[in-house]
Amino acid sequence: MWSSHAFTDSDRTTARPFFLIPTLFLSLPTPPNPGGERERERERERKRVCDKMAATGAFSTPISSTRLPVSSYRTPTGVPPFSISIRSSISNRPSTLSANAPPADLPLRKIPGDYGFPFIGSIQDRFAYFYTEGCDAFFRSRIRRYNSTVFRVNMPPGPPVSADPRVIALLDAVSFPVLFDTAAVEKRDLFTGTFMPSTDLTGGYRVLSYLDPSEPLHAPLKKLLFFLLSHRRRSLIPEFRRAFGSLFSSLESDLSKQGKVDFGPGNDRACFDFLSRALLGRDPADSPLGSDAPAIIMKWVLFQIGPLLTIGLPRIIEDATLHSFRLPPALIRADYNRLADFFRESAGPVLDEANRLGISREEAVHNLVFSICFNSFGGMKILFPNIVKWLGRAGGRLHTRLAAEVRAAVRSNDGQIGMRMIEEEMPLVKSVVYEALRIEPPVSMQYGRAKRDLLIRSHDAAFEVKTGELLFGYQPFATKDPRVFDRAEEFVGDRFVGEEGERLLRHVVWSNGPETEGPTVENKQCAGKDFVVLVARLLVIELFLRYDSFEIEVGSSALGSSVKLTSLKRASF
Ligand code: HEM
User: Which amino acid positions bind heme, per UniProt (predicted)?
Assistant: First the structure.
Protein backbone atom coordinates (compact mmCIF):
# COMPACT_ATOMS: atom_id res chain seq x y z
CA MET A 1 0.00 0.00 0.00
CA TRP A 2 1.22 3.42 -0.87
CA SER A 3 2.00 6.40 1.24
CA SER A 4 0.14 9.43 0.12
CA HIS A 5 3.08 11.55 1.16
CA ALA A 6 6.43 11.13 -0.47
CA PHE A 7 8.92 11.34 2.36
CA THR A 8 11.96 13.16 1.21
CA ASP A 9 15.24 13.09 2.95
CA SER A 10 15.26 16.84 3.08
CA ASP A 11 12.00 16.75 5.02
CA ARG A 12 13.85 14.99 7.74
CA THR A 13 17.14 16.77 7.79
CA THR A 14 16.23 20.38 7.25
CA ALA A 15 12.80 20.66 8.77
CA ARG A 16 12.68 21.42 12.44
CA PRO A 17 11.89 18.24 14.37
CA PHE A 18 8.52 18.19 16.03
CA PHE A 19 10.06 17.45 19.43
CA LEU A 20 12.02 20.70 19.34
CA ILE A 21 8.88 22.79 19.35
CA PRO A 22 9.04 24.47 22.73
CA THR A 23 6.67 22.92 25.21
CA LEU A 24 5.22 26.39 25.49
CA PHE A 25 3.64 25.91 22.05
CA LEU A 26 2.28 22.51 22.88
CA SER A 27 0.70 23.39 26.18
CA LEU A 28 -2.76 24.75 25.75
CA PRO A 29 -4.34 27.51 27.75
CA THR A 30 -4.22 26.80 31.46
CA PRO A 31 -7.50 26.47 33.33
CA PRO A 32 -8.92 29.83 34.27
CA ASN A 33 -8.40 31.53 37.63
CA PRO A 34 -10.07 29.20 40.10
CA GLY A 35 -10.94 32.09 42.37
CA GLY A 36 -13.62 33.57 40.07
CA GLU A 37 -17.22 32.24 40.42
CA ARG A 38 -17.83 32.67 36.66
CA GLU A 39 -14.71 30.67 35.89
CA ARG A 40 -15.71 28.00 38.38
CA GLU A 41 -19.10 27.76 36.70
CA ARG A 42 -17.42 27.51 33.27
CA GLU A 43 -15.24 24.70 34.60
CA ARG A 44 -18.30 22.93 36.00
CA GLU A 45 -19.97 23.31 32.60
CA ARG A 46 -16.95 21.84 30.83
CA LYS A 47 -17.00 18.92 33.18
CA ARG A 48 -20.73 18.44 32.66
CA VAL A 49 -20.21 18.32 28.88
CA CYS A 50 -17.33 15.90 29.20
CA ASP A 51 -19.18 13.65 31.63
CA LYS A 52 -22.25 13.71 29.45
CA MET A 53 -20.32 12.82 26.31
CA ALA A 54 -18.41 10.10 28.12
CA ALA A 55 -21.66 8.68 29.44
CA THR A 56 -23.16 8.64 25.96
CA GLY A 57 -20.06 6.94 24.60
CA ALA A 58 -18.98 9.94 22.59
CA PHE A 59 -15.34 9.31 23.36
CA SER A 60 -13.36 7.00 21.27
CA THR A 61 -13.86 3.73 23.06
CA PRO A 62 -11.53 0.76 23.02
CA ILE A 63 -11.73 -1.39 19.95
CA SER A 64 -13.19 -4.70 20.95
CA SER A 65 -10.70 -7.04 19.43
CA THR A 66 -12.21 -10.34 18.47
CA ARG A 67 -8.86 -11.82 17.69
CA LEU A 68 -9.09 -15.55 18.11
CA PRO A 69 -6.41 -17.72 19.65
CA VAL A 70 -4.56 -19.60 16.98
CA SER A 71 -2.98 -22.78 18.11
CA SER A 72 -1.60 -24.21 14.92
CA TYR A 73 -0.78 -23.26 11.39
CA ARG A 74 -4.30 -24.24 10.41
CA THR A 75 -5.86 -20.90 9.56
CA PRO A 76 -9.59 -20.87 9.10
CA THR A 77 -10.86 -18.08 6.94
CA GLY A 78 -11.82 -15.03 8.93
CA VAL A 79 -8.83 -15.31 11.24
CA PRO A 80 -5.65 -13.39 10.60
CA PRO A 81 -3.13 -15.86 9.25
CA PHE A 82 0.08 -15.46 11.18
CA SER A 83 -1.01 -14.71 14.70
CA ILE A 84 0.84 -17.67 16.10
CA SER A 85 4.22 -16.45 15.13
CA ILE A 86 4.25 -12.79 15.74
CA ARG A 87 1.61 -11.84 18.21
CA SER A 88 2.92 -9.53 20.87
CA SER A 89 2.75 -10.61 24.46
CA ILE A 90 1.14 -7.35 25.48
CA SER A 91 -2.57 -7.65 25.98
CA ASN A 92 -3.56 -4.40 27.65
CA ARG A 93 -5.11 -1.70 25.54
CA PRO A 94 -3.50 1.57 24.62
CA SER A 95 -3.92 4.13 27.36
CA THR A 96 -4.88 6.55 24.65
CA LEU A 97 -8.01 4.58 24.01
CA SER A 98 -8.95 3.35 27.41
CA ALA A 99 -10.05 6.49 29.16
CA ASN A 100 -13.73 7.23 28.84
CA ALA A 101 -13.56 10.68 30.33
CA PRO A 102 -10.95 13.41 30.20
CA PRO A 103 -9.08 14.30 33.35
CA ALA A 104 -11.02 16.95 35.23
CA ASP A 105 -8.36 19.56 34.52
CA LEU A 106 -8.40 19.01 30.75
CA PRO A 107 -9.91 22.13 29.21
CA LEU A 108 -12.62 21.87 26.59
CA ARG A 109 -11.38 23.92 23.67
CA LYS A 110 -12.94 25.05 20.40
CA ILE A 111 -11.03 23.43 17.54
CA PRO A 112 -8.70 26.16 16.28
CA GLY A 113 -7.98 26.90 12.61
CA ASP A 114 -10.20 27.69 9.66
CA TYR A 115 -10.58 26.72 6.03
CA GLY A 116 -10.22 30.17 4.49
CA PHE A 117 -12.34 31.30 1.55
CA PRO A 118 -14.01 28.51 -0.43
CA PHE A 119 -11.76 27.24 -3.23
CA ILE A 120 -9.00 29.83 -2.60
CA GLY A 121 -8.32 28.57 0.94
CA SER A 122 -7.86 25.02 -0.19
CA ILE A 123 -5.59 25.96 -3.10
CA GLN A 124 -3.47 28.05 -0.71
CA ASP A 125 -3.20 25.15 1.73
CA ARG A 126 -2.35 22.76 -1.10
CA PHE A 127 0.42 24.97 -2.39
CA ALA A 128 1.87 25.37 1.11
CA TYR A 129 1.64 21.62 1.74
CA PHE A 130 3.39 20.60 -1.48
CA TYR A 131 5.73 23.47 -2.20
CA THR A 132 6.23 26.48 0.04
CA GLU A 133 6.36 24.59 3.34
CA GLY A 134 6.41 20.85 2.59
CA CYS A 135 4.35 18.25 4.40
CA ASP A 136 5.98 18.02 7.84
CA ALA A 137 6.66 21.74 8.11
CA PHE A 138 3.08 22.45 6.98
CA PHE A 139 1.72 20.60 10.00
CA ARG A 140 4.40 21.81 12.39
CA SER A 141 3.84 25.46 11.55
CA ARG A 142 0.12 25.11 12.23
CA ILE A 143 0.72 23.36 15.56
CA ARG A 144 2.75 26.41 16.53
CA ARG A 145 0.26 28.88 15.10
CA TYR A 146 -2.75 27.37 16.87
CA ASN A 147 -0.88 26.16 19.92
CA SER A 148 -2.65 22.85 19.43
CA THR A 149 -2.06 19.41 17.91
CA VAL A 150 -5.74 19.32 16.84
CA PHE A 151 -6.89 21.95 14.33
CA ARG A 152 -8.92 22.60 11.19
CA VAL A 153 -7.16 22.63 7.82
CA ASN A 154 -7.71 21.77 4.13
CA MET A 155 -5.97 18.64 2.90
CA PRO A 156 -4.84 18.21 -0.72
CA PRO A 157 -5.85 17.77 -3.42
CA GLY A 158 -8.88 20.04 -2.95
CA PRO A 159 -11.13 21.13 -5.82
CA PRO A 160 -11.84 20.12 -8.50
CA VAL A 161 -10.52 16.63 -7.66
CA SER A 162 -12.04 16.51 -4.18
CA ALA A 163 -15.26 18.37 -3.58
CA ASP A 164 -14.65 18.97 0.12
CA PRO A 165 -11.06 19.16 1.43
CA ARG A 166 -11.98 20.29 4.97
CA VAL A 167 -10.61 18.10 7.77
CA ILE A 168 -9.82 18.18 11.47
CA ALA A 169 -6.15 17.22 11.83
CA LEU A 170 -5.08 14.95 14.72
CA LEU A 171 -1.35 15.25 15.28
CA ASP A 172 -0.47 13.52 18.54
CA ALA A 173 -0.52 10.01 20.01
CA VAL A 174 -3.61 10.67 22.13
CA SER A 175 -6.05 11.97 19.53
CA PHE A 176 -4.89 9.82 16.58
CA PRO A 177 -6.29 6.42 17.74
CA VAL A 178 -9.90 7.59 17.42
CA LEU A 179 -9.37 6.74 13.74
CA PHE A 180 -9.20 3.02 14.58
CA ASP A 181 -12.51 3.06 16.39
CA THR A 182 -15.06 1.90 13.83
CA ALA A 183 -17.85 2.63 16.30
CA ALA A 184 -16.82 6.28 16.29
CA VAL A 185 -15.76 6.82 12.67
CA GLU A 186 -16.92 5.64 9.27
CA LYS A 187 -14.19 4.63 6.82
CA ARG A 188 -16.28 4.40 3.63
CA ASP A 189 -14.38 5.65 0.52
CA LEU A 190 -11.69 7.33 2.63
CA PHE A 191 -8.71 5.10 1.88
CA THR A 192 -7.01 7.80 -0.21
CA GLY A 193 -8.40 10.73 1.76
CA THR A 194 -10.70 13.48 0.61
CA PHE A 195 -11.15 12.03 -2.88
CA MET A 196 -11.62 8.55 -4.24
CA PRO A 197 -10.03 7.38 -7.50
CA SER A 198 -12.39 6.23 -10.26
CA THR A 199 -13.61 2.64 -9.91
CA ASP A 200 -12.76 2.33 -13.63
CA LEU A 201 -9.23 1.78 -12.33
CA THR A 202 -10.30 -1.29 -10.34
CA GLY A 203 -12.52 -3.13 -12.82
CA GLY A 204 -15.61 -1.12 -11.86
CA TYR A 205 -15.56 -2.32 -8.24
CA ARG A 206 -15.15 -0.51 -4.94
CA VAL A 207 -12.40 -2.72 -3.56
CA LEU A 208 -12.05 -3.74 0.08
CA SER A 209 -9.77 -0.90 1.16
CA TYR A 210 -12.61 1.56 0.44
CA LEU A 211 -15.32 -0.41 2.28
CA ASP A 212 -16.54 0.39 5.77
CA PRO A 213 -16.92 -2.68 8.03
CA SER A 214 -20.67 -1.98 8.13
CA GLU A 215 -20.93 -2.81 4.40
CA PRO A 216 -21.98 -6.39 3.60
CA LEU A 217 -18.98 -7.25 1.41
CA HIS A 218 -16.34 -6.07 3.88
CA ALA A 219 -16.29 -9.26 5.96
CA PRO A 220 -16.25 -11.82 3.10
CA LEU A 221 -13.57 -9.88 1.21
CA LYS A 222 -11.39 -9.57 4.29
CA LYS A 223 -11.82 -13.29 4.96
CA LEU A 224 -10.73 -13.90 1.39
CA LEU A 225 -7.51 -11.97 2.00
CA PHE A 226 -6.83 -13.90 5.20
CA PHE A 227 -7.19 -17.03 3.05
CA LEU A 228 -4.91 -15.61 0.35
CA LEU A 229 -2.17 -14.88 2.88
CA SER A 230 -2.39 -18.22 4.66
CA HIS A 231 -3.28 -20.92 2.13
CA ARG A 232 0.31 -21.32 0.88
CA ARG A 233 2.01 -20.26 4.09
CA ARG A 234 4.67 -22.95 3.89
CA SER A 235 6.00 -21.40 0.72
CA LEU A 236 6.44 -17.91 2.19
CA ILE A 237 9.90 -18.28 3.71
CA PRO A 238 11.42 -20.39 0.90
CA GLU A 239 10.03 -18.09 -1.79
CA PHE A 240 11.22 -15.01 0.08
CA ARG A 241 14.73 -16.43 0.34
CA ARG A 242 14.71 -17.35 -3.34
CA ALA A 243 13.59 -13.91 -4.57
CA PHE A 244 15.72 -11.84 -2.20
CA GLY A 245 18.73 -14.18 -2.39
CA SER A 246 18.77 -13.57 -6.11
CA LEU A 247 18.26 -9.81 -5.56
CA PHE A 248 21.29 -9.57 -3.27
CA SER A 249 23.44 -11.65 -5.65
CA SER A 250 22.68 -9.28 -8.50
CA LEU A 251 23.18 -6.21 -6.27
CA GLU A 252 26.61 -7.54 -5.29
CA SER A 253 27.59 -8.08 -8.88
CA ASP A 254 26.40 -4.60 -9.98
CA LEU A 255 28.10 -3.00 -7.00
CA SER A 256 31.43 -4.58 -7.89
CA LYS A 257 31.12 -3.26 -11.45
CA GLN A 258 29.71 0.21 -10.79
CA GLY A 259 30.83 1.16 -7.26
CA LYS A 260 27.22 1.78 -6.17
CA VAL A 261 23.86 0.26 -6.94
CA ASP A 262 20.25 1.40 -6.62
CA PHE A 263 18.29 -0.87 -4.26
CA GLY A 264 14.90 0.21 -5.66
CA PRO A 265 14.45 -1.42 -9.10
CA GLY A 266 15.80 -4.81 -8.00
CA ASN A 267 13.67 -4.64 -4.85
CA ASP A 268 10.57 -3.98 -6.98
CA ARG A 269 11.25 -7.05 -9.11
CA ALA A 270 12.00 -9.23 -6.08
CA CYS A 271 8.82 -8.07 -4.31
CA PHE A 272 6.52 -8.88 -7.23
CA ASP A 273 8.25 -12.21 -7.96
CA PHE A 274 7.99 -13.15 -4.29
CA LEU A 275 4.32 -12.17 -3.98
CA SER A 276 3.28 -14.05 -7.13
CA ARG A 277 5.27 -17.18 -6.42
CA ALA A 278 4.48 -17.30 -2.70
CA LEU A 279 0.80 -16.32 -2.74
CA LEU A 280 -0.30 -17.68 -6.12
CA GLY A 281 2.32 -20.31 -6.90
CA ARG A 282 2.90 -18.66 -10.30
CA ASP A 283 6.13 -17.27 -11.63
CA PRO A 284 5.39 -14.08 -13.57
CA ALA A 285 8.34 -14.87 -15.83
CA ASP A 286 6.34 -17.86 -17.15
CA SER A 287 3.31 -15.73 -17.98
CA PRO A 288 2.51 -13.10 -20.62
CA LEU A 289 3.23 -10.49 -17.92
CA GLY A 290 6.93 -11.37 -17.95
CA SER A 291 8.87 -8.78 -15.98
CA ASP A 292 6.50 -5.90 -16.80
CA ALA A 293 4.43 -5.88 -13.61
CA PRO A 294 6.41 -3.37 -11.48
CA ALA A 295 6.36 -0.73 -14.24
CA ILE A 296 2.66 -1.27 -14.97
CA ILE A 297 1.80 -1.04 -11.27
CA MET A 298 3.72 2.22 -10.93
CA LYS A 299 1.74 3.78 -13.78
CA TRP A 300 -1.55 2.44 -12.45
CA VAL A 301 -0.80 3.88 -9.01
CA LEU A 302 -0.01 7.26 -10.54
CA PHE A 303 -3.47 7.23 -12.12
CA GLN A 304 -4.98 6.61 -8.69
CA ILE A 305 -3.05 8.84 -6.32
CA GLY A 306 -1.33 11.29 -8.65
CA PRO A 307 -3.22 14.20 -7.01
CA LEU A 308 -1.37 13.37 -3.74
CA LEU A 309 2.15 13.11 -5.16
CA THR A 310 4.91 15.38 -6.32
CA ILE A 311 6.87 14.00 -9.25
CA GLY A 312 9.33 16.81 -9.79
CA LEU A 313 7.60 18.84 -12.54
CA PRO A 314 7.78 22.64 -12.33
CA ARG A 315 5.46 23.66 -9.46
CA ILE A 316 2.85 25.59 -11.40
CA ILE A 317 2.59 22.96 -14.10
CA GLU A 318 2.45 20.08 -11.64
CA ASP A 319 -0.19 21.81 -9.54
CA ALA A 320 -2.32 22.82 -12.50
CA THR A 321 -2.25 19.29 -13.94
CA LEU A 322 -1.47 16.40 -11.59
CA HIS A 323 -3.14 17.97 -8.54
CA SER A 324 -6.08 19.46 -10.39
CA PHE A 325 -7.28 16.73 -12.75
CA ARG A 326 -7.68 13.00 -12.79
CA LEU A 327 -5.74 11.14 -15.44
CA PRO A 328 -8.27 9.39 -17.73
CA PRO A 329 -8.54 5.69 -16.77
CA ALA A 330 -8.86 4.73 -20.45
CA LEU A 331 -5.14 5.46 -20.88
CA ILE A 332 -4.16 2.69 -18.49
CA ARG A 333 -6.91 0.17 -19.29
CA ALA A 334 -4.87 -2.10 -21.56
CA ASP A 335 -2.07 -2.34 -19.01
CA TYR A 336 -4.49 -2.92 -16.15
CA ASN A 337 -6.18 -5.70 -18.12
CA ARG A 338 -2.82 -7.48 -18.41
CA LEU A 339 -2.53 -7.44 -14.62
CA ALA A 340 -6.11 -8.62 -14.17
CA ASP A 341 -5.60 -11.45 -16.73
CA PHE A 342 -2.57 -12.63 -14.79
CA PHE A 343 -4.61 -12.90 -11.59
CA ARG A 344 -7.61 -14.42 -13.38
CA GLU A 345 -5.37 -17.18 -14.73
CA SER A 346 -3.15 -17.69 -11.68
CA ALA A 347 -5.36 -17.45 -8.63
CA GLY A 348 -7.56 -20.56 -9.11
CA PRO A 349 -7.75 -21.78 -5.47
CA VAL A 350 -8.31 -18.25 -4.15
CA LEU A 351 -11.08 -17.63 -6.68
CA ASP A 352 -12.69 -20.93 -5.67
CA GLU A 353 -12.58 -19.78 -2.05
CA ALA A 354 -14.21 -16.50 -3.15
CA ASN A 355 -17.10 -18.49 -4.62
CA ARG A 356 -17.50 -20.32 -1.32
CA LEU A 357 -17.62 -16.96 0.45
CA GLY A 358 -20.30 -15.67 -1.91
CA ILE A 359 -18.04 -13.29 -3.82
CA SER A 360 -18.25 -13.26 -7.62
CA ARG A 361 -15.10 -14.38 -9.43
CA GLU A 362 -14.69 -11.03 -11.18
CA GLU A 363 -15.03 -9.03 -7.97
CA ALA A 364 -12.46 -11.34 -6.38
CA VAL A 365 -10.04 -10.89 -9.30
CA HIS A 366 -10.06 -7.09 -8.98
CA ASN A 367 -9.70 -7.28 -5.22
CA LEU A 368 -6.69 -9.56 -5.66
CA VAL A 369 -5.12 -7.14 -8.13
CA PHE A 370 -5.58 -4.35 -5.63
CA SER A 371 -4.41 -6.18 -2.54
CA ILE A 372 -1.34 -7.74 -4.16
CA CYS A 373 -0.34 -4.85 -6.43
CA PHE A 374 -1.42 -1.79 -4.44
CA ASN A 375 -1.52 -2.91 -0.79
CA SER A 376 1.26 -5.51 -0.75
CA PHE A 377 3.65 -4.56 -3.56
CA GLY A 378 3.14 -0.86 -2.86
CA GLY A 379 3.72 -1.28 0.86
CA MET A 380 6.87 -3.34 0.38
CA LYS A 381 8.15 -0.91 -2.23
CA ILE A 382 8.13 1.81 0.41
CA LEU A 383 8.94 -0.19 3.53
CA PHE A 384 11.93 -2.17 2.32
CA PRO A 385 14.07 0.78 1.18
CA ASN A 386 13.08 2.50 4.45
CA ILE A 387 14.40 -0.44 6.47
CA VAL A 388 17.65 -0.51 4.50
CA LYS A 389 17.94 3.26 4.95
CA TRP A 390 17.43 3.30 8.73
CA LEU A 391 19.66 0.28 9.28
CA GLY A 392 22.30 1.75 6.98
CA ARG A 393 22.28 5.00 8.91
CA ALA A 394 22.38 3.18 12.26
CA GLY A 395 25.91 1.94 11.46
CA GLY A 396 28.31 -0.90 12.18
CA ARG A 397 27.65 -1.55 15.86
CA LEU A 398 23.98 -2.33 15.34
CA HIS A 399 24.90 -4.37 12.24
CA THR A 400 27.28 -6.54 14.29
CA ARG A 401 24.62 -7.18 16.96
CA LEU A 402 22.05 -8.10 14.32
CA ALA A 403 24.45 -10.40 12.47
CA ALA A 404 25.38 -12.15 15.74
CA GLU A 405 21.72 -12.64 16.71
CA VAL A 406 20.58 -13.86 13.30
CA ARG A 407 23.47 -16.25 12.76
CA ALA A 408 23.31 -17.73 16.27
CA ALA A 409 19.57 -18.42 15.88
CA VAL A 410 19.92 -19.94 12.42
CA ARG A 411 22.89 -22.10 13.50
CA SER A 412 21.01 -23.43 16.50
CA ASN A 413 18.18 -24.43 14.16
CA ASP A 414 20.35 -26.44 11.76
CA GLY A 415 20.51 -23.64 9.23
CA GLN A 416 16.72 -23.40 8.92
CA ILE A 417 14.56 -20.29 9.32
CA GLY A 418 11.13 -20.74 10.83
CA MET A 419 8.43 -18.40 12.11
CA ARG A 420 8.59 -19.61 15.69
CA MET A 421 12.36 -19.28 15.79
CA ILE A 422 12.14 -15.70 14.54
CA GLU A 423 9.54 -14.94 17.17
CA GLU A 424 11.47 -16.45 20.04
CA GLU A 425 15.15 -16.04 19.20
CA MET A 426 15.44 -12.75 17.36
CA PRO A 427 14.34 -9.92 19.67
CA LEU A 428 16.63 -7.37 18.04
CA VAL A 429 15.46 -8.21 14.51
CA LYS A 430 11.87 -7.78 15.68
CA SER A 431 12.69 -4.50 17.38
CA VAL A 432 14.43 -2.89 14.40
CA VAL A 433 11.45 -3.71 12.19
CA TYR A 434 9.01 -2.14 14.65
CA GLU A 435 11.32 0.85 14.98
CA ALA A 436 11.40 1.34 11.19
CA LEU A 437 7.60 1.13 11.12
CA ARG A 438 7.37 3.60 13.99
CA ILE A 439 9.81 6.21 12.75
CA GLU A 440 8.56 6.20 9.16
CA PRO A 441 5.13 4.60 8.85
CA PRO A 442 4.86 3.68 5.15
CA VAL A 443 1.23 4.82 4.92
CA SER A 444 1.31 8.07 6.75
CA MET A 445 -2.26 9.37 6.49
CA GLN A 446 -5.53 7.99 7.75
CA TYR A 447 -9.05 9.38 7.58
CA GLY A 448 -12.38 8.69 9.30
CA ARG A 449 -15.74 10.49 9.33
CA ALA A 450 -17.37 11.09 12.72
CA LYS A 451 -20.40 8.80 13.00
CA ARG A 452 -21.83 10.94 15.79
CA ASP A 453 -20.88 13.91 17.95
CA LEU A 454 -17.54 13.07 19.55
CA LEU A 455 -15.27 14.48 22.17
CA ILE A 456 -11.68 14.04 21.05
CA ARG A 457 -8.74 14.44 23.42
CA SER A 458 -5.20 15.57 22.77
CA HIS A 459 -2.57 15.63 25.54
CA ASP A 460 -3.73 19.07 26.52
CA ALA A 461 -7.38 19.60 25.73
CA ALA A 462 -10.68 18.07 24.70
CA PHE A 463 -12.44 19.10 21.48
CA GLU A 464 -16.01 18.70 20.28
CA VAL A 465 -16.44 17.19 16.83
CA LYS A 466 -19.79 17.15 15.07
CA THR A 467 -21.36 14.20 13.26
CA GLY A 468 -20.14 14.05 9.66
CA GLU A 469 -16.91 16.00 10.16
CA LEU A 470 -13.84 14.45 8.58
CA LEU A 471 -10.97 13.49 10.90
CA PHE A 472 -7.48 13.19 9.48
CA GLY A 473 -4.38 11.80 11.21
CA TYR A 474 -0.80 12.30 10.07
CA GLN A 475 0.68 9.21 11.61
CA PRO A 476 4.37 10.17 11.95
CA PHE A 477 3.34 12.86 14.44
CA ALA A 478 1.55 10.22 16.52
CA THR A 479 4.35 7.65 16.41
CA LYS A 480 7.03 10.27 17.03
CA ASP A 481 5.11 11.98 19.81
CA PRO A 482 7.84 13.03 22.28
CA ARG A 483 5.39 12.70 25.15
CA VAL A 484 5.19 8.96 24.44
CA PHE A 485 8.61 8.06 23.03
CA ASP A 486 12.01 9.12 24.36
CA ARG A 487 14.37 10.32 21.62
CA ALA A 488 11.31 10.14 19.39
CA GLU A 489 13.09 11.39 16.26
CA GLU A 490 15.98 8.93 16.61
CA PHE A 491 16.16 5.42 15.23
CA VAL A 492 16.80 3.37 18.38
CA GLY A 493 17.32 -0.20 17.17
CA ASP A 494 16.62 -1.96 20.48
CA ARG A 495 13.76 0.31 21.55
CA PHE A 496 11.24 -2.55 21.63
CA VAL A 497 13.45 -5.20 23.25
CA GLY A 498 12.45 -6.43 26.72
CA GLU A 499 9.33 -5.90 28.79
CA GLU A 500 9.58 -2.12 28.90
CA GLY A 501 10.10 -1.98 25.15
CA GLU A 502 7.24 -4.33 24.39
CA ARG A 503 4.93 -2.16 26.41
CA LEU A 504 5.50 0.61 23.88
CA LEU A 505 4.26 -1.54 20.99
CA ARG A 506 0.72 -0.39 21.55
CA HIS A 507 1.82 3.01 20.22
CA VAL A 508 3.16 1.51 16.98
CA VAL A 509 0.18 1.89 14.67
CA TRP A 510 1.43 1.60 11.07
CA SER A 511 -1.31 -0.98 10.33
CA ASN A 512 -4.17 1.36 11.26
CA GLY A 513 -4.32 -0.12 14.72
CA PRO A 514 -2.06 -0.84 17.67
CA GLU A 515 0.67 -3.41 17.06
CA THR A 516 -0.71 -5.29 20.07
CA GLU A 517 -4.02 -5.93 18.29
CA GLY A 518 -4.89 -7.67 15.06
CA PRO A 519 -7.04 -7.28 11.95
CA THR A 520 -10.55 -8.71 12.17
CA VAL A 521 -13.55 -8.62 9.88
CA GLU A 522 -15.05 -5.96 12.15
CA ASN A 523 -12.17 -3.49 12.07
CA LYS A 524 -10.18 -1.63 9.40
CA GLN A 525 -6.78 -2.78 10.58
CA CYS A 526 -4.51 -3.83 7.72
CA ALA A 527 -5.36 -7.35 6.55
CA GLY A 528 -1.67 -7.94 5.85
CA LYS A 529 -0.39 -6.79 9.25
CA ASP A 530 1.29 -10.03 10.32
CA PHE A 531 2.45 -10.82 6.79
CA VAL A 532 4.15 -7.43 6.54
CA VAL A 533 5.95 -7.82 9.85
CA LEU A 534 7.07 -11.29 8.80
CA VAL A 535 8.50 -10.26 5.42
CA ALA A 536 10.21 -7.23 6.96
CA ARG A 537 11.92 -9.50 9.47
CA LEU A 538 12.91 -11.86 6.65
CA LEU A 539 14.56 -8.94 4.84
CA VAL A 540 16.65 -8.09 7.91
CA ILE A 541 17.54 -11.76 8.40
CA GLU A 542 18.61 -12.17 4.76
CA LEU A 543 20.75 -9.03 4.97
CA PHE A 544 22.62 -10.11 8.08
CA LEU A 545 23.04 -13.73 7.10
CA ARG A 546 24.91 -12.49 4.04
CA TYR A 547 26.67 -9.36 5.27
CA ASP A 548 28.51 -8.15 8.37
CA SER A 549 27.77 -4.58 7.45
CA PHE A 550 26.79 -2.29 4.57
CA GLU A 551 26.82 1.39 3.61
CA ILE A 552 24.30 3.49 1.74
CA GLU A 553 23.53 6.80 0.07
CA VAL A 554 20.01 8.18 0.48
CA GLY A 555 17.97 10.38 -1.84
CA SER A 556 14.28 11.04 -2.31
CA SER A 557 11.69 9.76 -4.75
CA ALA A 558 7.99 10.28 -5.46
CA LEU A 559 7.18 7.23 -3.34
CA GLY A 560 9.42 6.58 -0.37
CA SER A 561 13.18 6.79 -0.19
CA SER A 562 15.70 6.18 -2.90
CA VAL A 563 18.54 4.10 -1.42
CA LYS A 564 21.82 3.24 -3.12
CA LEU A 565 24.16 0.63 -1.66
CA THR A 566 27.78 1.78 -1.69
CA SER A 567 29.33 -1.21 0.10
CA LEU A 568 28.35 -4.71 1.18
CA LYS A 569 30.77 -6.42 3.58
CA ARG A 570 30.39 -10.19 3.23
CA ALA A 571 29.75 -12.31 6.34
CA SER A 572 33.01 -13.14 8.11
CA PHE A 573 31.79 -15.00 11.21
C1 HEM B 1 4.15 -2.27 4.22
C2 HEM B 1 3.02 -2.79 3.88
C3 HEM B 1 1.68 -2.29 4.28
C4 HEM B 1 1.32 -1.16 4.94
C5 HEM B 1 2.21 -0.06 5.45
C6 HEM B 1 -0.12 -1.18 5.08
C7 HEM B 1 -0.86 -0.21 5.73
C8 HEM B 1 -2.22 -0.22 5.82
C9 HEM B 1 -3.01 0.82 6.42
C10 HEM B 1 -2.46 2.06 7.10
C11 HEM B 1 -4.31 0.51 6.26
C12 HEM B 1 -5.50 1.31 6.71
C13 HEM B 1 -5.85 2.34 5.69
C14 HEM B 1 -7.05 3.12 6.09
O15 HEM B 1 -8.15 2.54 6.15
O16 HEM B 1 -6.94 4.30 6.35
C17 HEM B 1 -4.34 -0.75 5.56
C18 HEM B 1 -5.50 -1.37 5.21
C19 HEM B 1 -5.51 -2.51 4.47
N20 HEM B 1 -4.43 -3.26 4.06
FE21 HEM B 1 -2.51 -2.88 4.40
N22 HEM B 1 -0.59 -2.31 4.48
C23 HEM B 1 0.47 -3.02 4.00
C24 HEM B 1 0.44 -4.25 3.38
C25 HEM B 1 -0.69 -4.95 3.13
C26 HEM B 1 -0.72 -6.29 2.62
C27 HEM B 1 0.49 -7.19 2.40
C28 HEM B 1 -2.00 -6.60 2.45
C29 HEM B 1 -2.44 -7.93 1.96
C30 HEM B 1 -3.37 -8.38 1.47
C31 HEM B 1 -2.80 -5.45 2.86
C32 HEM B 1 -4.17 -5.34 2.81
C33 HEM B 1 -4.90 -4.32 3.36
C34 HEM B 1 -6.34 -4.27 3.31
C35 HEM B 1 -7.24 -5.24 2.61
C36 HEM B 1 -6.73 -3.13 4.02
C37 HEM B 1 -8.16 -2.69 4.31
C38 HEM B 1 -8.62 -3.46 5.52
C39 HEM B 1 -10.09 -3.40 5.78
O40 HEM B 1 -10.84 -2.92 4.93
O41 HEM B 1 -10.53 -3.88 6.83
N42 HEM B 1 -1.96 -4.48 3.29
N43 HEM B 1 -3.06 -1.18 5.31
Answer: 526
